[in-house]
Amino acid sequence: MSYIEDNQIEKELKGQIPEAPIDDTENKQQEDSQKPQQQESMIGKKINVGANMQRIDKDEINEFSNKNRLSRVGESIAVNSDIREGWMEVDKALLGDRAIFYRPDWEFRIRPATVEAIRHWSTIDDENANSIDRVFNEVMKTCFSIITTNGPIPWYNVNAWDRFFFILLIREYTFSKGETKIEYTEDCINCNNPVTFQLTSGSLLYDMPDDEVMPMFDQSSCNWIIDPNEYGLETDEILKLWLPTLEKDINVKQWAMNRYQENPNRELDPVLIRFLPWFLPKISKDDTIAQRQINEFRRKFESWDIDTFNFYNDVITNIMVTPNTKLIQKCPICGEEVTSPIRFPNGASSLFHVESKFKKFGKK
Ligand SMILES: [Zn+2]
Fold first, then answer.
1. What CA–CA distance (Å, rounded) separates 315 from 304?
2. Which residues contact 208 (CB under 8 A, 6 or more apart)?
3. C-alpha 328 – ligand 1 centre gap (Å)
4. CA 338 to ligand 1 center in whole angstroms
5. Does the pTM of the predicted model rise above 0.90?
6. Residues 101-149: pLDDT tens digits?
7. Distance from the CA of 190 to the center of ligand 1, in angstroms?
8. Ligand 1 centre from 49 Cα, in Å?
9. Nearest-angstrom CA–CA distance, 291 and 156
10. What's the CA gap between 342 and 198, in Å, rounded?
């Protein structure tokens, strides 16, 4: 299994600027949600990562989005205009199978990145993962919202694995003419001809939980409810797990950064960090409370015997939605399926880069 390497975490934490503060004034109505770790795992049935990949293609998007609802992203993203204004509802069908991980009454809205946000964007340090992380969250905070039947709830209740999808969707909505495509080529492994890859919200692939485990997910509460006894692990405790939200991701990172600043030599347990967002409905942004919550979970975590740990570890591995780091494209010449790692040819900072109409002054 590939856990996050300790030193990798330390590296990530090093030089991390505090996360965009979570703005509680936006709305108080909170729902249980989750946090995110994106790591690959090799346990259980998920050894063959390629087997369960989901892909939403253009036709599917069009098919789903051409209902007569007002201003939905799917149908109107192609409408020409310069930088746009206004909120638009996102057709949840664009999420594909991942839509099930939200309560049915939730609706998502996005708006184009403002000139101010784009200006902000230019401060991204492409060499610094934390800088990218922070600006991604900033874009989500200003351009993404969640509406429920009880009113709006904060943007960070989104599942962490969907952040990049929404970032790309916001980007596509912002630059609707398609003049700022993120494209690159890769040679076909079969015929050597160049194959063009385009990075769009619809080109992202996700490794989903198997059909076999999906019935254990309860959409109305957004919990996974699993009875270990059915798998031969005798226990009185039914396992109840929450989804990893962006909020938990942000707060765990902040917590880890605080620990690092207290003592750069202390090692944080990456396995514990991987489990946290699933086992805790919320993680506080208040360091004292977060510390208490995490310590409490740690005591539980450390009390598990090896069978219990292994079972829980298999569970997490199999219910996790993992964004794939590759894109797939058919070679236009020979039809071979070619894969390419997701990349930003000019760095993440180019994602919201606006081509100016004037001639560039100087080379820098
Ligand atoms: Zn080919």
1. 15
2. 52, 53, 54, 97, 98, 321
3. 13
4. 8
5. no
6. 999 999 999 998 877 777 777 778 888 888 888 889 989 999 999 999 9
7. 5
8. 23
9. 20
10. 9
